[in-house]
Amino acid sequence: MTTDKDANSETLQRLQIIEQSAHAQGAQRAAHQAQLNETENALRELASAKESHRIIGNIMIKVDPATLTKELEEKRATLQARITSVERQESKLREEMQKLQDSILKGD
Predict the structure, then answer these.
(1) pLDDT digits over 83-108, tens only?
(2) What is the DSSP letter of 62?
């Protein structure tokens, strides 16, 4: 038989876990956003470039700007999709956190 105190304790623990998950999702979104910003900056610079280079390990090789542009556009699309996905997950976590907070305040 669980008591109200046990139920509240379990709800509080669940809330803390969800808050940690939401924080991790926020950090992940921020990292993806930083990569997206770098990619968009590279695309802007590449738009006016006559030649471009890629760094592979410790060497730099010349790459066709059109090829590099295509690769960066694909990377941008992937990052945007990841950001959207993480934002949806964050939203669901926030909704669940709100329900748990309401439950704790009501004493359910």
Answers:
(1) 999 999 999 999 999 999 888 888 75
(2) E
In this structure, the dihedral spanned by the alpha carbons of residues 67, 36, 76 and 32, taken in order and rounded to 10 degrees, is: 120
The position carrying tokens 């509240």 is: 8
Q: Per-residue DSSP letters for 58-87?
A: TEEEEE-HHHHHHHHHHHHHHHHHHHHHHH
Q: What's the CA gap between 102 and 93, in Å, rounded? A: 14
Please tell me the pTM assigned to this model: 0.82
Strand partners, 54: 61
- Sorted by where each begins, the domain ranges of the chain are 4-106
The hierarchical CATH code for the domain 4-106 is: 1.10.287.370
